[in-house]
Specification:
By secondary structure, the protein is mainly α. 74% of the residues lie in helices and 0% in strands. InterPro entries: DUF4235. Keywords: Membrane, Transmembrane, Transmembrane helix.
């Protein structure tokens, strides 16, 4: 059974929430970086024209920020859907 207890629905909605949250987070991180550093974040951190410190800083900020956002978005969706699953289970006839 592919959709056991709404798991497939939760996974799909979690993925959509993660993508949406990642988009917003990337915009916010770019804005904060620009205001803090005074210039746009590196478009290509692999470029030799970008300092190593700046490239590593942007990589760490985006890596941590995006992963934290993904975890929070997926957990929020699963938490939101969890009460329905428990409620549905309680309604099952024995």
């Amino acid at each position: 059974m592919a959709d056991k207890d709404g798991e497939l629905t939760a996974r799909i909605l979690g993925g959509v929430a993660a993508v949406a949250a990642a988009y917003v987070t990337r915009k916010i991180l770019t804005l904060v970086w620009t205001k803090t550093v005074g210039k746009e974040p590196p478009a290509d951190p692999d470029s030799p024209d970008i300092s190593l410190a700046e490239a590593l800083g942007w990589a760490v900020v985006t890596g941590v920020g995006m992963e934290v956002t993904r975890v929070l978005a997926v957990r929020a969706v699963h938490k939101r859907l969890a009460p329905r699953r428990h409620h549905d289970i309680e309604q099952l006839p024995l």
